[in-house]
Every structure is written in C-alpha cells, then in structure tokens.
Predict the structure.
Amino acid sequence: MDPLTQGAIGAALPLATRNRSQILLACGLGFLAGMAPDLDILIKSSEDPLFVLEFHRQFTHSLIFIPIGGGILAGIFYAVFSRWRSIGFLRIWLFCSLGYGTHGLLDSATSYGTLLFWPFDDTRYALSIISIVDPLFTLPILGMVLAGIRKNSGKWGRTAILWGAIYLTAGVWQHHSAMLKARDLAEKRGHVPARLTVKPTFGNIILWRSVYEYGGQFYVDAIRPRPCSTTFSGTSITKLDKIRDFNWLEANSTQAMDIDRFSRLSQGYLAKMGDHRNRIIDVRYGFIPTEISALWSIRLNPNAKANEHAIYETDRSRARNLLPVLIRMILDCP
C-alpha cells in the first residue's frame, strides 16, 4: 500500500503494546519500520527495466525476513541516536520488528502480489480485498495513532488495529459478493470463465473491477456488490498470443523472455494494446473499471537487438481527468 498507510499501521502495532511508557519512541520507530520494506524499489538495473518489478515485494516483504529487517533498522537507529537513547537495543529491535512485520501482510491484502514465503515459495499472494490507496482505511488509523501519542495511551493503537481488521473483513465480504455477481454476469452471457478475478477500484471497496477469460478473450466489467448492488457492462480484448501478435519476434530473444517475465508478474492477464505501438498491457488494471487501459505495460521494438530488453512504461496521465467519472460510478445509486 501507499507509504503513509504502511507507516500508520507500522506505528499502530507498537503503540498497541505500550501504555504511557515510551509511546512516542515506539510509534516513531514503528512508523519508519513500517515503510522500510519498500526500499526494495532501489534495487534496479539501468539495462533491465523489469528487474525492479521482480524484486519489489520480494525478500524484503517475506515473513522470514521480519526479524532480520527489524534488526538492521534497530542497529541503524541504535547507532545514529546513541547520544539520546534511553532504552536498550532489544527494545528498539522489538519496536522496529513489530512495525516492519505489518508491511508484507498489509501488501498481500492488495492485488499486486507479495512473496510472503520467500525463499521457500515463489507464489505472489494477493487477496485483492483493498486498494493500494484507501482513505477510509488510512485516515482513521492515522488519527488514532496521533491520538494515542497525544493522550499517551496504547488503547488508541489497539483501536486502530481493530478498525483495520474490521475494514479488511468488510473487504473480504465485498470481494466475495463481487465474485458472485461477476460469475452471474458471465453466466448470463453464456460464458464459463476459464478464470476470473475481481479487485477494488482506486480508493474504495464499493466499486470493483471484474476480469474474466473466456474463448481467448478477456471481459472487463464493473461490479458494485453493495450498497445499491449493480453491474456496469464493460468491454473485451483478445488474450495475448506471442506468435500471432508478434510474428517477427525471435523465440529466444531477450524481449520474448521479458514477455514471459511480465506474464508471471501479471498472472497471465496480458493483451496486446491496439494502438500500433507494440505494447503489452496487464488487463487487470485500469482507472475506470469498465475500460481497458495501459496503466502499466511493456513495449517491444521490432528493430531491437537479440539481447535488448523490452521497455517498461506506466501511464497515469488520465487519472485526474477520469476521477470524477470514477466517483460518479461509486456514488451513483440507481
């Protein structure tokens, strides 16, 4: 999730363990530790654009790495603040580990995928029960953490954790209902999906994006389970076929291997964008849930050398203009 949310949750857990003593220190260390695993975005290659995607949410987000990550941070804080520290290394390590430990678990609730059990399992776990940014989740938790610091009371941390659990449970409920409505929609069309996924749209758990595969096509629709249960019919796009869509591509070229890597990161939900730019998109994502758009993609070059990589691109340029449309879809109650 976004850094503010990760920091707020990271602060809430150490806060929940304290009562009057060392609350400010616990929250500060937890806040910083809660954001720290995303430093993996610094692991990148100037020659390989997909390298950073493969390492994001990898070992730094693994459950087994929590005490190690917490220990590294504790060592840094213990050394840097040696002149002012009033507690021992183990207490600092505890606060850092509690904050650090919330990060991977929270990320796994979103839809990108997190390697929780690295190095034993290469599965990217993605519950898809909350958006990467959700103010209704974040702001109450942040407010409770600040209240806990101001009132010097750990009960606010426990309340923040409780709110987070309630909200995520609501996300599970909405996700299940969205899946049922998406299956009903496919059935009405006479389709039996080979696979189906639903994910919350930006900033909420009310409106969901549904994507299912049938007959070599991906069908994209919007679902609102509740309140005011309804369905917004969308569009479809042909599933990627490397040989058909890029018959000029050498099977053993680096670009061909990059397609396979991108497919693993995108759970195979790939299609060629029909804009004559040789772009391959992840169909799961789109700012407006009924539309197919290239929020992130790779672009191939027919003139590239055999060892040249595909180009990774992101495009959020239309998000600001489309935000009113998304809000209307969320709030419109027929």
About this structure: Residues 173-334 form one domain. The beta strands are 195-200, 208-214, 217-224, 230-238, 270-272, 279-282, 296-299, 311-314.
